[in-house]
Amino acid sequence: MKEMTLNPLPALTWNWLRMNKASFLEEAELEAKSATLETSPLPEGAAFTSGKDLKAQEAAAPKSPARIEGALGKDFDALLGQKAQESSQGQEAAALLELKDGFNSASPLFVRARLEDKAASFKRLFVKAGDNVQATVIIEWSSDKNARGLNAFQTKIQAGSNSRLKVATVQLLGSGFVQLNDIGCAAGENSSIEIDQLELGADKIFQGIKSELASARSSFVHNAAYCLDGQRELDMNFIAEQRGRETKSLMNVYGTLKDGAKKTYRGTIDFKRGCAASVGNETEETLLLSPDVVNKSIPLILCDEEDVQGEHGATIGRLDEDLLFYMKTRGLPLEEAQKMMARSKIARVAALIGDDGEAQKALDFFDAGLETSADGGQK
Predict the structure, then answer these.
(1) Are 348 and 309 spatial neighbours (Cβ–Cβ below 8 Å)?
(2) Exposed, middle or buried by CB within 10 Å (0-12, 13-18, 19+), for 332?
(3) Model pTM greater than 0.85?
(4) Contact of 288 with 255, CB cutoff 8 Å
(5) CA 123 to CA 197: how far, in whole Å?
(6) Contact 215, 242 (CB under 8 A)
(7) Is 278 exposed, middle or buried, given 0-12, 13-18 or 19+ CB atoms closer than 10 A?
(8) pLDDT per residue as tens digits for the range 231-252
(9) pLDDT digits (tens, 9 = 90+) for 187-236
């Protein structure tokens, strides 16, 4: 087994809280077997390449999204590189979704991965959008309900100028999985990248995003939702690095903790010199449904520029007593009230992902997990 450092903060702070980074011990007994990525039918102007058809020199080209940094850290990058070399599939460990200049699709493009029980999957996906692109990409991971394994997935996203790109990730893995989800993105001039995330399955989740806003008037929006029960754990590291003038970042996280679940949130807005007239905002809402949960949060603003505006806030607490009393008077038991509030946070982000069918699929998965949990089983 090999121990890795994951989700390091861009600037060390509050060492006594032991939140500057996370540690992960790779499970050696799992069988290395990368999941096959399948796409929906692609319209003209979109192309998907994987396996031996994806040339190594293309992935390493100067303007390739492969050069964008993620947030899980150098150890995770090294792990994926090592697994790609060890694999007999070689470049099949990577895939490229390319959207040509001017590509415009009202329908979302899907990339799906079905993972097997007791398998360890290591995969990279590059999303390269040209200029004047408007598109939504939905990435979904799924497995059997009680499956266990490891899903190590890295997505690098690049958007050209004057583009509007949305990428949604929907995680529907079995109750014994470990999810390592790393995202790096870079937006061109006058472009926006929105990332919406639903982490609904798996036992342990490490989630990281780093956005690079180096071009003028580029923007990044992030929305994430989760609900953790049992002894499940979630570790997050979200970084908005703003270098260009008049850039904007907005990060929102909505979650629920119950039983003995544990959550760590790191959210950093990093104003670099030269990003004058830029704005950054991050918010976190966490609902605590048990006295035994562990909740840690570091909202962080770093600033090396004067003419900027940065805000962060966190709302962490239990259900309002007045609200609970109101619901009880209407015949709604406490447990049902808790389910309703937890579901509302998931539904809030599910409504943003850009496809009604996928949103309902996520909510059905969430509802099934609540029913199993209520019966005394594990999600």
Answers:
(1) no
(2) middle
(3) yes
(4) no
(5) 18
(6) no
(7) buried
(8) 999 999 999 999 999 999 999 9
(9) 999 999 999 999 999 999 999 999 999 999 999 999 999 999 999 999 99
